[in-house]
Structure formats: structure tokens, C-alpha cells
Automatic annotation (TrEMBL):
<feature type="domain" description="EAL">
    <location>
        <begin position="24"/>
        <end position="278"/>
    </location>
</feature>
<protein>
    <submittedName>
        <fullName>Bifunctional diguanylate cyclase/phosphodiesterase</fullName>
    </submittedName>
</protein>
Length: 282
């Protein structure tokens, strides 16, 4: 029961808090069962180069809840992180992503595609994370060179030396790294120099107002220039229109992802999209 204590020491029940707690507990219960019930699927959002050609995709998890329907990762990923369930869920994502890579590798038209997978901080910090990735790659037969792990700055909290060592171990396998939601964290510049990253991903919050916000224009331009001077590939997420793409392209951003090119779609549709003629920058 949700007991709240008022300033004068009286205790009372708040039905709203109570209802929220119950909803959360029930969602957590369902989340525990979701893997064995096979309720998760991956969808894919294409990533394109400056000519609009599909060069890869990001895998994004979806949860088809038996009663509530589709539950957004924005809702259940934080809950999964709080409860530790992100570890088995994240492992499922890695496994499914590796299987997808193998399917793509077996087709002439898709064998060049890379796949980016989101990895939560808690998942990355598991002592056996490197072994797990290694086992998934071996079991599936996927090429590590096509697998990209997206980390966020929250992963860098804690023993940074350990994290860097772990990244090096994975890089030795051929895996690459992207720093997701770049610009929204706090430690960017200090760590950027030390981390063995391959790519930074400009957060969509800077990209979505590019056509009307001069501050965001300046920020985006600076991030791209910094990426260039540090030898990092720069990708922009949340590219929603031609103006966004044009501005990013003018500043030599390397890769692009967003609704302008493609919404997250099923694996089958992703293949069809990658075969379609590229979107032109006109
Ligand atoms: P993210 O990794 O930053 O992914 C980008 C999000 O922006 C995705 O939302 C994507 O659908 C959305 N998006 C893509 N293009 C556009 C656009 O042009 N405009 C706008 N407004 N949005 C766009 P989604 O799929 O709901 O995922 C939300 C977040 O959930 C992800 O943010 C990521 O942090 C997390 N997530 C998703 N899948 C996984 C997963 O497998 N594991 C973990 N740990 N986290 C995941
Ligand atoms: Mg991501
Ligand atoms: Mg992101
Ligand atoms: Mg984001």
C-alpha cells in the first residue's frame, strides 16, 4: 500500500500513487515472462550515407504485450534497467541481431549491411558481457565486423578504465562502437578522447529543430567538426526532412538516420527498402 507521510506526521493513502504502483508491479511481472512468451521483436531503421544509400540499420526493440498491445521501449526499458531484467532482454536482442546479420550476409543485396544494437549501461557492465557477445557471434556465425554496439554516456559512469579495457577486448573481435544520444550527457569531451569509439551519434534533440534554431545549427556543426578532427564517423539521428539532411550534408556529416529516409520497419521490409533507389538530395 502506498503510504504517504504528510508534514504534520499524519499518514494517508494516495489512490493515484497506489494505482501507479500496481500498474508498475503488473508490468514488471509481465516483463519477466515476455522473453519465454516470445513477445519481443526487433524492428530496423535504415542508416544511409551522403548519397542516400542504405549502409546499415539500427535494431530497435518492440514489445507486443498480450493485453495492452504495443508497449514502447521508452516505457519498459527504464523498468527493465531498474529491475535488472535488461540483462536477459539485452541478451535476447544481441542474439536476434546476430541471427539477422547472418540472414543478411547470405544475400548478395544485403551482405554489406551493418547492424547497430543498443546496449544499456548495466548490460555492458556485466562481468561476462564480452564472453556473451563472443558466444553469440560464434553460435550464430555472424561477422563481428558488421556488428556495432551503441553505448550512451551513462555507460561511462564508474570505472572508466575497466570500460575502456572491455571496449578494446570487443574491438579486438571486430565489433565497433557508437556513442548514442551524443550531446545530451555531461562528460562528452573528457571521455571522447580516451574511448576507443568509431562513431558518435548526434542526438535527435539537436537535429529536429535544425531548420529553425540557430543554436542547434551551431551545436550540430561543432559536433560534426569535432568528430572530423578526432577521426570519428558522425551519424545524425532524427533526420525528419530535406532541410535537416541538407544542413547536415553541407557540414559533411557521414551518415543519417530518421523518418525522412525510413521509419523502423520489419526485417522483410528493411530488405526491400535497401533495394529501392536511394533518396536524392535535391
Ligand atoms: P535511441 O537508441 O536513441 O533510438 C532512436 C529513437 O528515435 C527510436 O525510438 C526511433 O524509433 C526514434 N526515431 C527514429 N527516427 C526518428 C525521427 O526522424 N524522428 C523522431 N522523432 N524519432 C525518430 P524507439 O524505437 O521508441 O526507441 C527509444 C529508445 O529506447 C532508444 O533510443 C533506445 O535508447 C531504447 N531502445 C530501443 N531498443 C533498445 C534495445 O534493444 N536495447 C536497449 N537497451 N535500449 C533500446
Ligand atoms: Mg540507439
Ligand atoms: Mg539515439
Ligand atoms: Mg535519442
Amino acid at each position: 500500500l502506498a503510504k504517504l507521510t504528510s508534514p504534520n506526521g499524519l499518514r494517508f493513502y494516495d489512490p493515484a500513487v497506489q494505482a501507479e504502483l500496481e500498474a508498475r508491479t503488473s508490468l514488471e511481472h509481465d516483463l519477466r515472462l515476455a522473453i519465454e512468451r516470445q513477445e519481443f521483436v526487433l524492428v530496423y531503421q535504415s542508416q544511409v550515407d551522403s548519397l542516400g544509400r542504405t549502409i546499415g540499420a539500427e535494431a530497435l526493440i518492440r514489445w507486443e504485450h498480450p493485453r495492452n498491445g504495443f508497449v514502447s521501449p521508452g516505457t519498459f526499458i527504464p523498468l527493465a534497467e531498474e529491475t535488472g531484467l535488461i540483462v536477459p532482454i539485452g541478451n535476447w536482442v544481441l542474439e536476434a541481431a546476430c541471427e539477422q546479420l547472418v540472414a543478411w550476409a547470405n544475400d548478395e543485396h544485403t551482405k554489406h549491411l551493418t547492424l547497430a544494437v543498443n546496449v544499456s549501461a548495466i548490460q555492458f557492465q556485466q562481468p561476462d558481457f564480452v564472453d556473451t557477445v563472443c558466444a553469440m557471434l560464434t553460435k550464430s556465425g555472424a561477422s563481428a565486423h558488421r556488428l556495432k554496439l551503441e553505448l550512451t554516456e551513462s555507460t561511462m559512469i564508474g570505472k572508466v578504465d575497466n570500460i575502456i579495457a572491455r571496449m578494446h577486448q570487443l574491438k579486438a573481435l571486430g565489433v565497433s562502437f557508437s556513442l548514442d544520444d551524443f550531446g545530451t550527457g555531461y562528460s562528452s569531451l573528457q571521455y571522447l578522447k580516451r574511448l576507443p569509439l568509431d562513431q558518435i551519434k548526434i542526438d535527435q534533440s539537436f537535429v529536429c529543430k535544425l531548420h529553425r534554431d540557430t543554436d542547434d545549427k551551431a551545436i550540430v556543426q561543432t559536433i560534426i567538426a569535432m568528430g572530423h578532427s578526432l577521426g570519428l564517423q558522425v551519424i545524425a539521428e532524427g533526420v525528419e526532412n530535406l532541410e535537416h539532411w541538407r544542413y547536415l550534408n553541407e557540414h559533411q556529416c557521414h551518415a543519417y538516420q530518421g523518418y525522412y529516409f525510413c521509419k523502423p520497419v520489419s526485417a522483410t521490409e528493411m530488405v526491400l527498402r535497401s533495394l529501392a533507389p536511394p533518396r536524392m538530395l535535391t
